[in-house]
Hints:
By secondary structure, this protein is mainly alpha-helical. α9 (160-169) packs across α17 (342-359), α15 crosses α17 (342-359) and α17 runs antiparallel to α18. It has helices at 3-19, 24-39, 42-57, 63-77, 80-91, 98-114, 117-134, 139-150, 160-169, 173-179, 181-201, 216-242, 248-265, 271-305, 307-316, 322-337, 342-359, 364-378, 386-394, 401-424, 427-435. It has one domain (3-435).
Amino acid sequence: MExxxxxxxxxxxxxxxxxxxxxxxxxxxxVNLVGAFFILGGEVGLIQMARNSVQxxxxxxxxxxxLFILMGEILFQTRIAHKAIDAIDRVITRVPGRLSVVTVxxxxxxxxxxxxxxxxxxxxxxxxxxxxxxxxxxPTLAMGPIMASGAIAMLIPPSALAVLVGSLAGFSxxxxxxxxxxxxxxxxxxxxxxxxxxAGLRPELAPAEPLPEMSLYERWRPFLIYVVPLSGxxxxxxxxxxxxxxxxxxxxxxxxxGALIAGAGYRAxxxxxxxxxxxxxxxxxxxxxxxxxxxxxFSQILAFSGATGGLIRLIEGLDISSLQILIGxxxxxxxxxxxxxxxxxxxxxxxxxxxxxxxxxxxxxxxGVTYLLTLEIxxxxxxxxxLLFVMQGVAxxxxxxxxxxxxxxxxxxxxxAVLVLLIAYPTLGTWLPAQLGR
Length: 438
């Protein structure tokens, strides 16, 4: 069987199963079973598939995924993160669109503590959306910053998805965690600028609000009690990586210890909320491990069949540059992001994109950080961007999905502009890992 037919059948079968609503992990397993039997050699192929699945999920490199998720769940379930948001709210004053700016700062801070875009967006939405709407904020300046800054958790370490991308693609996980820092900070700055300009030009979008009189001590005390100590967790996680004192797994473990200490120190940690945090971590981790196991076998079947090599030779024979190939990959990811979730996008594209990128000389870190930012954008692309539905789920009943789409649009433009900047100047993502030898 020729490799183009094998590639078409594998990808076509996968898409068909996904369209039926079958969970992504089971869709991949079904395709893998058929592929392993007919391409890897009958019963021997099925045995090899089972061995691949076991080997792929017993890698020590995957440990940070569960640990980063647990760290964020502890802070979320103990509601310490909510108190940090209240503290940030107190110290930001006299700025147009104040609550929207508070949202961006809070979302960026919690992104550095959670690693989960869904948890970040849900927490910001449930905490900050009601007061903004009650005070007359336009839905665009109320919901837009929540979704935009909630998605930053995909870029800022500790990002569980960055660990997943690194594991699936064979990239340096420590390097990929660091590569997202500068693009994420640039996004946050751009979000604040667009909010301040919009609210300054059209004050009716974000009505001014009377602030209670407070002394300097009253205003900054909660910030010093909640935000500064929690920032220490981020410093421990990233500082240990930067200094070369810990591997990603060890730094994630330190983050979990820090979250437990914070929960106990604030007297917010109970057996009940710890149990919920652990159960949520188990649910997410098992789902991710199923996906990793299926993805590794899918990659091997494509390689063994000659589809991967044939596709690489075909692209190498075309008269196009590596930059054009990278742009093509980004366009494919953006298209897929309109219809499927981030993990499915990774599983479909990594087995094909990574070998091609290496064959044409695209550096791993350039592809990796471009992947992360493109996946972040896909969280907000209609009609099926995941965070769009998370936002609608926490919004009042009168908010329709069209309002959510409209609120996301200006911030999508900003994200795409930063993505273009990243493609034009890859050092924006690779500079920090290169400085630290990652």
